[in-house]
Amino acid sequence: MGGLYLLDYGAGNVRSLANALNRLEYEFKWVKKPEDILEADKLIFPGVGAFGSAMELLASKNYVEPLKQYIKSGKPYMGICVGLQTLFHGSEENPDVPGLCIIPGTVKLLNKTDKAVPHMGWNEVFCVRRINGVNEDYPQDNHHGIEQGTVYYFVHSYAVPFTDELKEWTLATTQYGKEIFISVIQKDNILCTQFHPEKSGYAGLRVLKSFLQGKGIVNNTSGQFIIKNPEILPRDRFTKRIIACLDVRTNDQGDLVVTKGDQYDVRECNDGSGVSGQVRNLGKPVDLARRYFDEGADEITFLNITSFRNCPLTDLPMLEILKRTSETVFVPLTIGGGIRDVIDPDGKFHSALDVAGEYFRSGADKVSIGSDAVYAVEKYLANDKKLSGNTAIETIARAYGSQAVVISVDPRRVYVDSPANAMGHHVIPTSYPGPKGETWCWYQCTVKGGREGRDIDVHQLVTTCEAMGAGEILLNCMDKDGTNSGYDLELIQDVKKAVNIPVIASSGAGREEHFEKVFVETNVEAALAAGIFHRREVPIQSVKNYLKERNILVRNIVSTL
């Protein structure tokens, strides 16, 4: 049989890798049984999720021994993310679960003292190998398509620290905060990346292409290269993400369109009467997503604001949008709306984990949970602050890793004249007084697309969701939505101090300087915008150029293979 095989063990988004191979015009087969592994001439293991879950799923399918045998056979093997980590003896993520034991050492949790964890976003790799006797960098073909100074997409909480013992395995390293870990492993027939090449735009596709073509250093039997130890830089090369958001809903004609609200109202009101008109139609979702990829968006988020009012597993148009988008868009995709336990029209129960799994199989990399997160926190507080283990956040994070779970927060300001009148809620002083001159406020969480307020504040929500296993916060603000007046910096600063996971600033962007301000004053990892990108009022490239001129690191666009 032979040929290229992909190992799908049932966790996370492997559709994106399949689409990347299709884009490179390579035929492949899926591993469906243990014997297929040994039949392969080339094998790619696109690991996604937690170390323990990956190893347990491999064991349940009887893949472990054939996988070890294949790797030791000398045939080309590529592992991605967890596909790299499983080569080691074990991981701090699941200390009782053994790895494949190909490489000595343990995968360790990233240090949280000086940075957000998970490490989520675009970061630079530093190729530590040099041709013996040559000072300058050598061609990227010798680096398996990796180009010095290029950034790639990472999403992980655990990594392999660079050590002298692992020098012979190390092709490249990456610095995050003051910590250096191995980002590319290569020795003999093995090539593994901690980053996701299938999510790293055309730069990542080059790495896949190099592996498939058999380029790059394979061994060092002739002593042709040396290892240059990486140095800790005063500042890492981790870039700020610019995210394009597409609010998708059904219009009055029944078509899925991209729309945009003003303080969450998505209908036109042109005559001044206050009577709502047609749903704003700003374009077709797949076409817009592709446009944003070409323009340099670092991620794309779909928020289905129709909210899957029946059953998301039967929402075939939205699932089709994800599938079609992932065919040509090679950056991370997030989907939000309806991530909850549901009962379909036939009375069959589907857990939130089932719903998330369908999205991942359709091309999503992350799922965004909104209203259900608020309900989960309410139950947590009512249960004496005890985690149940069965919320959507906990079950999805356990199966797919915390990096797959985003909490979408829809808060609104509640002004009070003093903290004593906040009913026990977390308050902050504000420089923007309320209608009666109040100088204190708290942020009330809402559900159902902002239509209903709950007795939960943002501080309670984000800290509890982090404890449940969420990996990122998408921080909206109803008061700022559609105003083009800038992000709510007071809200964002408060949340950034409260959690150790990445935060995405959302709501209010209207000019390039708003992005600079939110990055400089709050140190968030990412900023999201919608309407100004849809209407081309502020192009993505203009934002990035503006930030680069002010020494804020952003990803450069690689426009071709």
Automatic annotation (TrEMBL):
Keyword annotations from UniProtKB, A to Z: Amino-acid biosynthesis, Glutamine amidotransferase, Histidine biosynthesis, Hydrolase, Lyase, Multifunctional enzyme
Stretches assigned to the Glutamine amidotransferase domain: 6-201
GO molecular function terms listed in the Swiss-Prot or TrEMBL record: glutaminase activity; imidazoleglycerol-phosphate synthase activity; lyase activity
Active-site residues (renumbered): 81, 196, 198, 247, 410
Record region (PRFAR binding): 370-371, 408-410, 481-482, 507-508, 530-531
SUPFAM superfamilies for the chain: Class I glutamine amidotransferase-like, Ribulose-phoshate binding barrel
Regions that span the bilayer: none
Family per record: Belongs to the HisA/HisF family.
Name the UniProt record assigns to this protein: Imidazole glycerol phosphate synthase hisHF
Organism: Dentiscutata erythropus
